[in-house]
Amino acid sequence: MSDFDGNEELLQDFLTEANELLADLDNRLVELERTPDESGLLNSVFRNFHTIKGGAGFLGATELVKLCHLTENLFDRLRNGEMSLDLALMDLIMAATGEVRSMFGNLAAARQPSPAPEQLLTALEAAIAGETPPAAVASLPATLPVASTPPAGATAATEPDWAALLASVVPGNVTALRVVEQNAEVLLPSVDEPLQKPQPASHGRRASDDPALETARSGRRDSDKVAVAKDSTIRIDTSRLDQVLNLSGEIGLTKNRLTCLRTELLAGKTDTLTLRALDEAVGQLDLLVGDLQNAVMKTRMQPVGRLFQKYPRLVRDLARQLGKEIDLRLHGEDTELDRTMIEELSDPLVHLVRNAVDHGMETPEERRLAGKPEKGTVVLAAQQSGDHIVIEISEDGRGMRPELLRRKAIEKGLLDPETIHGMDDRQALQLIFLPGFSTKDQISSVSGRGVGMDVVKTNIQKLNGRIDISSTAGAGTTISISLPLTLAILPVLVVRLSGQPFALPLTMVREIVRLDPAQIQSVSGKATVLIRDEVLPVRALASMLDMQSEGPPAYGVLLQTSTTNLVLAVDGFVGRDDVVIKPLDGVKPKGIAGATLSGDGSVVLVLDMEELFRDAPAETRSSLLAHAA
Known about the structure:
- The protein is of the alpha+beta class.
- Helix 4 (87-108) crosses helix 5 and helix 12 (339-360) runs antiparallel to helix 17 (453-462).
- It is built from 20 helices and 21 strands.
- The strands form 5 sheets. A 6-stranded mixed beta sheet has the order 13-17-18-16-15-14.
- The relative contact order is 0.07.
- Helix content is 41%, strand content 20%.
């Protein structure tokens, strides 16, 4: 039974606004820590807390009101100059905002929040009275509990104390169907569901290598109704809806014109003027439909800044925990990306930012000895490049050494030594994406279990994206993620095998080459071909799909995967196309991502190349040629 029966819409409205306010508040607190005398920031933080408190009062969330009231009083004393902001006081404030976020999780689960920990309330009251916050509270970001690894098959969430929530930066951003007049935005149901539905934030977090990478599960049983609203809403600028409406009207007029011309043609009127008018109407309809598709695509686009806003608080808390000094810089927040992709990028980016701080960045002492500034820099940037969005996470830390990565991979038995020693430095950097890979010798609450980077790569690939690494020892590392603008339309290369068309993601394709069976050689028992002084393995699509080809391999598609380059042998090509992938209801064939329709109405299967490569055995020259009919 929900604690908010009859007030679900009011609750959703509150959570939408309050989570945005809290995210903005976190960023302003990080700024305030750098410039504690900035009165404008203090006033803004005070207003945010006051607004959250007011909304909580309407919902009868008395415990949230109590916590916000105490924190608000603390900020009132700060802005009136009755006390000064120091590091211990900022830690206390961050602890309070962490508990507010935890209470939002209870609200997202349609439950009234539990009382805040007595330790926190006592510390806030002491600070308001002018006393120094207790050391146990003031040092919380640096003494977060260590997460434990769950047993195999475990799914239940652990219940950490309130201090552990300081490590979490994933707000429960439940949204609602409403109009925000002052921002000229409207919230409407999204076009489709995200690939993996996020869970509402709450006290519970699943123990893992990266607590912030795992979504909270506590209260899911009571929150299905609220969670559905969260997954199925999107903010849209009203001007974009106006454009869709105008184009719909023009298409309606063109449809009427085509109906009239059809009547004339059926009546036998086939003169030149009538046929020319028909051709013009069809051409006009084609242009309008294209414009409408683009306009609808834009309604799905959201500024990536809404995703970036959580990271200043994350970096600040993690740097305090690890005893490091780090400046996070954000660039390209106005770059727009498909809303569903923004949701799916949240967890991978959290993990990459945490890794940049933990693995990449040195301590102030190490940086000083290396001749660097004691404060390191992490840059999170986004930009549009053609029909792709590129997101980069870079830092000026210690960098990665390929020889160390090779040695660690061999020690852990992740790949055979022959394969590892055959990798160049660029390929060796990709070893960090192997399941179980870690350079950490000791497990901590931040990292060390080798869990996470392989999940990051998998999630990026599910978005039809690519992730690359460049690193210089002693100078830093840059991780670049390239993503299509939208998941709704996928650029593909359509190939032919035994007369059947198959589509594969164009993002993986480097080039198309002709294959002569005489050029295919056997190296260490594997089929290979030499292309511009590069020896590449050859894999037959026919053997992967257990089909017969029309004859000896005639063409090869040079593909770039996350770990290697290879040549895919096919019978021929149909061409390049932009398709809309539809799932196969009730069935998930191995290596098949979905299906689409070609221009002539035939069904084309879209291949999941990473899955095919992962499960298919290595190709020998004899097996490659044996699949020829």
